[in-house]
Design brief:
Elements: H1 14-20, H2 29-38, H3 48-63, H4 66-75, H5 82-91, H6 94-111, H7 116-126, H8 131-138, H9 142-160, H10 164-172, H11 177-184, H12 188-200, H13 211-228, H14 234-241, H15 245-258, H16 269-288, E1 296-297, H17 298-305, H18 311-323, E2 333-334
Parallel strand pairs: 1-2
Helix pairs in contact: 1-3, 2-3, 2-6, 3-4, 3-5, 7-8, 7-9, 8-9, 10-12, 11-12, 13-14, 13-15, 14-15, 16-18
Length: 336
Amino acid sequence: MKSPENIPQAEQRPENLFRRIFDGKMLTPTEEMAVNILSSTSFSDLDSAQKMIMFEYSEFQELGQKALIRKKELFGEIREDELIRIHDRLAYDDALVERYDEFYNQLRDSAMPSNNSSVRIINLLREGLSLSEAADELEISVSEAEKIFKNYGKEKMLNSRPGTDQIAILKTKGMNNVKIAEELGLNIKYVETAVRALIFFGEIPPTPSGKSAVRQQDRFLMRVAQSRFKTTSNEQVAQQLNADIGKVEDATRFLLWIGLINPIGKSDAGKTRWKHAEHKEEVKKYLNSLDPTKRISLRAAHQESGIPIGYDLFCTLYFELSSEQKVPPVRNYSAR
């Protein structure tokens, strides 16, 4: 690897130094787009470290906790608290938050299908309308609005999930999931989720015996997706839909995987920071009230606390408080 003094001057420009970080990496179309945007003259005032923070946070927004797996694929070993570090390095720098919003809006607009109807439907959902209300606004049928909404998610998934097109081809040839995983060198869980997504998007047919169950799952997924545009809390979604929290969490993980919703929904990093601080004292007070001899899982603690925040944010706040030694040691609790 060249040392900085041996790199030609043209290559040492900030945009080229940042791009060189990804030399030899196999990027998804969305990642390639992100690198191109950050390497453009619009962001020439930022150094490579700042651009990397923005790139990593965009991965977190697109992939949720899967961003950690993706970072490990690209750059090797990562720290256990990497997800919190990715969040904090951006969310507590107001100036960088503003530049990130500019960058992510460009990335989202570039990745969004060019069909004007899909753009309008997504904007209407972000404003709090239901899919049927958005259909009325656009003077189209609800089924057409649902189709446009799904196409939006499908294009995002194909851009951000490597190998899904190949999985679809092999599945239509009759190959089972285990064989596909072996053929493509992919994790079996990845293949199973991709197959579920391809069925959801109508790219491959469900089994004859599973058609009824798939229709029911599709309806539930669409309801959760619409609700997540209005709130980022799985608990609130479960209450709105009168549904089991476990089913809502499973649906949310799937919808995040396919890209139909974002991890922080309508909130930007600044709003996440505000929510982060708002509930920190509540989590601290609850955790300090626990019997230090009692062993309890973080998920059980989250449910027992009754604090109206998602499980991921509860864990983030817990680990942050632990690092500040403001709550009992982490050994008293299990993340499982």
